[in-house]
Amino acid sequence: MEKFADKLAAKPLFYQRAYLGSLLPNHVKSGNLEKYYQKLTDFNFLMAKIQHPEFGVQALIDDFNLVDNSEALSHPEYNPEKAKALNLIQVVLWMSADIWERDKTQLAGQLLGRLLHFNIPAIQAMPEVAKQWKAAPWLRPLTPCLTPPRRGLLRTLTGRNSVNAVAVTEDGKRAISGSSDNTLKVWDLTTGQEQFTLEGHSYLVNAVAVTADGKRAISGSSDNTLKVWDLTTRKEEFTLKGHSNSVNAVAVTADGKRAISGSSDNSLKVWDLTTGKELFTLKGHSYLVNAVAVTADGKRVISGSRDNTLKAWDLTTGKEEFTLRGHSYSVNAVTVTADGKRVISGSRDNTLKVWDLTTEKEEFTLKGHSYSVNAVVVTADGKLAISGSWDNTLKVWDLTTRKEEFTLNGHSQQVNAVAVTADGKRAISGSFDNTLKVWDLTTEKEEFTLKRHSQWVNAVAVTVDGKRAISGSRDNTLKVWDLTTGKELFTLKGHSQQVNTVAVIGDGKRAISGSSDTTLKVWDLITGKELFTLKNYIHWVKAVAVTADGKQAISGSSDKTLKAWDLTTGKELFTLQGHSDWVNAVAVTADSKQAISGSSDKTLKVWDLTTGKELFTLQGHSNLVYAVAVTADGKRAISGSRDNTLKVWDLRTGKEEFTLKDHSDVVKAVAITPDGKRAISGSWDKTLKVSDLTTGNVIASFTGESSIACCAIAPDGVTIVAGDESGRVYFLRLEGMEELT
């Protein structure tokens, strides 16, 4: 790899440009498909093109379109296996494009995390070459830990604020999003690039619709207005004023002549998009209107309200036709099938309901989301519904079988909006996590099962021999993993609520876990059996650490205290009091003399475990402290906070040394290498970062599928285990450190 890159870099810029830009087109023109296949499965070539300032990710994606596989079938060099490999690689490029645009060193990690699922000779060589990449430090997945290039996430479009609304043009080429930053953005769905921003609203944009010809967008805002935008000139045409409260929903008739809006003033308004005038107001809901959908013939509108009902309105007369009752909570989303016969609604009662507009009856209920359903759309053929929820997922439902088809995971916060392309092949979702995501809805026969927890992984620990990892989850279980293979060995069951914390005891034969069920449990890691339970709390156990000799455990709780336990007798030794809010994290020095705790009161405290007294308080974070780790020599502590930073503290002086500000969201986890030279941090920004504690610089980064909640490092100093919100456990190895020595 280095030799190839060095050779190319040594060439003049015009040569690099010509080589990377014309090589593949020349192969295609000459009919040399074999060389075309070879280059696009060559990790060296991919990295060179992505890193070149005049090309990048999109140019590389376009290279895979130079050959149409349907046209190449008759070519003597056509190879179906290699064609399939190219398709997989291209989809991976789509899926991780946003990551590589920020950090090109993650090419190898993202490729391996997704392509290790496949046993295809045509691409097996590429991961092997990627493993040898040493140009910069990077985190190498040891297992296929990321979503494979199959049905699921295609691309992420990143904005600056939460995405509240999204619409897609009829041709499927553009998406229009509305945001909490008061703007709309227009996106090219082919390249994933933002085309332009529409500014004019003075408050949040809650809703957006686009006319069938794709020439106009209509937006609704918390500033009580709607705006009509010309997508050709990129200008505002006019503003629709009349609502006395926030506009929450908007729909447009198929002929593009009328818009219907729903508002927190409990009404709907029908607008003439030619004159910009209000035609009439629809009144009947007793609470705010959250959702609006219009039938294809433009004769009927269906609204959903916080009064728990849906209403059908006649757009000719402006009269209410009937009311649909059945949801037990606010109706947040409504869509109508193309034939106008069915309505699908989503509610804060966590369900979707399918209604027959002919009989005015509920047909059936779709259950599966664990939180409020905020958005729903239906494909043009009326066969699939796609819903978005506060549980951070989208679900695809088969309206014929009345079953959930599959779940789309990837957003790290609630899904507020969803749209579907006219051909029903892709969905676009918007979320509080500031992103839009493009999803592939087509089904594949080959399915992949990732061994994981069913809910958020809150804690991980590694045994002293580095052979096993233990994870604790919101699914109330712990799992024991073979750290060499990434295989699950067994599951530990016994807690009745989520597992918040885990630590390994002594020689690695036992582990201790703390739970929201107010207990700690000690487990035998050889037999997988529970040994005993520590019961003295009346509040959640949030953190636990064990002394080096394995004789004592120190736990932290939402009752604002820490407790010291004798692990031989199972008895409580003493309680440490001083924090004014939850204790979220605890670490113990290697000599077992001191404990360091982190709290929701924004401080850390250093405690003397011999006397049970507080030594001093570390102040500096501006928000909750979620994580703390201590160096092996006991001289330094590193804390992670909701203020998005890590702080390095001198435990001899009680002073802050410096702050690390590289994460863009909450820092939930931190671990330190055995030599004390590097920190590994995990954040809700979905990244793991390795930082040099001498320089304060980030030396390697890895982007996971969801918010990172916990991390640990093995005794070898290079094997890292992390857990995320989706239930994944990542096994990674820090590579390329030779470049820093």
Largest sheet: 4 strands, antiparallel
State the low-pLDDT regions, or none.
none
Mean pLDDT: 91
The gross shape turns out to be globular
Beta-strand residue percentage: over 45%
Beta-strand segment tally:
56
Descriptive labels:
single chain; 741 residues; mainly beta; four-stranded antiparallel beta sheet; 56 strands
Structure description:
- This protein is mostly beta strands and 741 residues long.
- It contains nine helices and 56 strands.
- The strands form 14 sheets. It has a four-stranded antiparallel β-sheet with strand order 1-56-55-54. A four-stranded antiparallel β-sheet has the order 2-29-28-27. Strands 3-4-5-6 form a four-stranded antiparallel β-sheet, with no helix packed on it.
- Helix 4 packs across helix 5 (57-63), helix 5 packs antiparallel against helix 7 (80-102) and helix 8 runs antiparallel to helix 9 (121-131).
- The longest helix has 23 residues, at 80-102.
- It is globular.
